[in-house]
Design goal:
two-stranded antiparallel ribbon
Amino acid sequence: MASTNEAIRAKKEREQGFEKFKKPLLCNFCDAPNPRWRYADWAACNACAAAIDPGDHDRLYIRKAAAMLAKWDSKAPENWIDELKWAREDLEEDFWSDPNIPYGL
C-alpha cells in the first residue's frame, strides 16, 4: 500500500515539475498569446487571422517582421535583413503554399 501511495505522489511531483516548462500557446506569426484561430497546424491571433482570411500576404508578413524586430529590440543579429527575408520565404513556402490552408474566401 505504501508503495502505491509513493508511486502516486512521485507521479504528481513529476507532473508538477513539468508545469514550469509548459509554454503558453502563442500565435505562430506574431507571438501574441492565446491565439484563437487554427489553420492546419498553425495557430493565429485575431489580427493575424484578419490578414490570413483574405489572403493578405503582405499584412501577415508585416506582423511577423514587427514581432521579430520587437523580440530583437536592440540586440538584432548581424544578418537581421537576411533573417527578415527568410521569414518572408518561410511564410510563402511553408504557410501560404500549404493546400490545407483555407484563405481568400
